[in-house]
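B., you asked whether I could sanity-check this one before it goes into the benchmark set. Here's the sequence:
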Amino acid sequence: SKKKTKARSAASSKNSISGLRNELARIKQTIRKQEQALRANKAQVRLKLKDLERINSDMARRRQSIDSINNDLHRLDNNIGLLSAQLDNLRSQLEERKACYVKSMRYMAKQRNIQSQLMFIFSAKSVTETYRRLRFMRQYAAYQRTQGKAVQEKQRQMEEKRKQLHDTRGQKSTMLTKGHREHEALVRQQNEQQQLVTSLQKQQKTIAAVLEEQKKKDEEINALKAKIEELQK
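And here's what the prediction gave me:
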């Protein structure tokens, strides 16, 4: 009876050890899988963090580009404003030149009349002075005409410059709109990457917790197995 009891005890211990070994094997396999999953997770987190860093760098460059374009637009608006003021001044000058020229031409037209010419001659102290006066009027009219043309040419140049500035501003505005769209796209990418990294980091914590739990079980079963083997001696 004692032999049977001892045999049953030995068989039970053997079964217990066998069961513990099987449990240990299962736990070790689980640990290996969890360690692999943790390594893969860490590698993915590093990769996504690099992507996030790249996106942040792209966003910084895009922000600088947008700021630069905004500064350019501000300067262009100032230049356009200055040109507009100068053009208004030139138009006033042109109107004055036109008025003076018309006045001179009317005066000369009157002087071409024979009677008016005689009156103009007799009103002078000498014939030489009369011709000097006529020559002066012709020169004055020519001067006014030249000045009018100069103002018109300057006005044309400034109108052309203003058109160039408006064209440049239009191009800059298009670039600014494109820059804002690209920046918004990067912001969306940044949010998506950040959410993915956060999710992976949470997953990493879960895997690490499971791994820690499996290692503790492994230690407990190893300790229990050692005790059973000690009792069998």
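One thing to flag: The chain is about 95% helix and 0% strand. Otherwise nothing jumped out at me.
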